[in-house]
Design goal:
The chain has 325 residues and is mainly beta. Helix content is 14%, strand content 50%. The protein has 4 helices and 26 strands. A hairpin with a 4-residue loop joins strand 20 and strand 21. It is elongated, with a radius of gyration of 25 Å.
């Protein structure tokens, strides 16, 4: 019997495929091959979805057809990625100045693939004025994720009740009396999203006399398990390059600082690296946070098991790399 671990759909970049053969007597053998797929396609959802708006800030959403460890920058800011579905969705808010604004979306994979798309949004006029300022401080995180809001202006003497719709389904999950706040008070609201997913919460402020103001948001609570996969991808890619004797290729999976620190050592250990890899007994995540992950590596040395901590961080280009070991 012959089997392989190839994915049903190869993402752009390099994928290592292992083939295994088993004969009737139970003897096994295997061979590995690298599959290269070019391309790094960015789709804005929907493409050029808006031409003009009075808003000072807009949400840019889209997908990228790419290897999992790919960074997306929206006007230079690292976008939030959803690694649970393919093509991988991304989202990021972009600020707009009056007049024409060029929105730039850049993609960079850990393997060096790059792509860039641009389009123009015109900020025409001003958004509807409101006596209240409602700011979402953090629109994404890893579940359980606490979305935090700061609300100013509630102490104007007419604001009466604040409502919070947790999921955007029209059901108010929280109600607060804000009629006793002072003019300079800043009301802080925190809402926990324990289950990974995309949410469309809203805040409604009702005034004495019947007036009301509504503020809509979009936030994402990420799945920590999907980030763990990036750690494994990066670790496996580093080892695949080292086993192939490609020191320069291995450095792509490391931060510039770490690569410089271990540049000579990497070349020294290459002849013995296959034996070193066989001494690993366990490698898995112990903590996952936005922009940083730590993994525990167990290794058998001279018959004794030793534990090491390995860290991965998301750089300013959005790509995750090994930063400490």
């Amino acid at each position: 019997a012959i089997s392989n671990d190839a994915p049903s759909l190869f993402p752009p970049g390099t994928t290592l495929v292992t083939w295994q053969a088993i004969d009737p007597s139970g003897n096994t053998s295997h061979v590995q091959q690298l599959v290269e797929v070019a391309g790094l396609d960015i789709e804005v959802d929907p493409a050029e979805w808006i031409e003009s708006t009075p808003l000072a800030e807009v949400l840019i959403r889209g997908t990228v057809l790419s290897p999992r460890n790919t960074g997306i920058l929206v006007n230079g800011e690292v976008a939030d990625m959803d690694y649970t579905t393919f093509p991988y969705p991304f989202m990021q808010y972009a600020s707009l100045d009056p007049g024409e604004n060029t929105i730039s979306i850049e993609a960079l994979s850990i393997g060096g693939l790059q792509n860039r798309v641009t389009f123009v949004i015109t900020r025409d006029g001003d958004e509807e004025s409101s006596p209240y300022e409602v700011e979402l401080l953090n629109h994404s995180g890893i579940a359980p994720f606490d979305a935090e809001y700061e609300i100013s202006g509630l102490g104007n003497g007419v604001a009466e009740t604040l409502y919070y719709d947790f999921e955007g389904d029209g059901v108010y999950d929280l109600q607060r009396d804000v009629s006793d706040l002072q003019l300079d008070d800043v009301y802080v609201l925190s809402a926990r999203h324990a289950i990974p997913g995309v949410y469309n919460p809203s805040i409604v402020i009702e005034e004495a006399g019947g007036g009301s103001y509504r503020y809509d948001f979009l936030i994402r609570a990420g799945d920590g398990n999907s980030y763990v996969g990036i750690g494994h991808d990066t670790w496996d890619g580093l080892h695949e390059r080292l086993l192939a004797g490609d020191a320069s290729g291995a450095e792509r999976f490391m931060s510039e600082k770490l690569a410089g620190k271990y540049r000579d050592a990497i070349r020294d250990i290459m002849p013995d690296f296959p034996e070193s890899v066989s001494s690993y007994s366990f490698f898995d995540a112990i903590e996952v946070r936005p922009r940083l992950m730590s993994f525990l590596l167990n290794r058998i040395e001279d018959g004794e098991e030793t534990a090491y901590l390995v860290y991965f961080a998301q750089g300013p280009d959005g790509v995750w790399k090994l930063v400490s070991m």
